[in-house]
Amino acid sequence: LSLEERLARYVIEGSKDGLIPDLEKALETYSDPLSIINGPLMAGMDEVGRLFNNNQLIVAEVLQSAEVMKAAVAFLEPYMEKKEGSTKGKVILATVKGDVHDIGKNLVDIILSNNGYEVIDLGIKVAPQQLIEAVREHQPDIIGLSGLLVKSAQQMVVTAQDLRQAGISTPILVGGAALTRKFTENKIAPEYDGVVLYAKDAMDGLALANQIQQ
Ligand code: B1M
Question: So where does methylcob(III)alamin get bound (predicted)?
Answer without folding.
Answer: 98-102, 146, 202
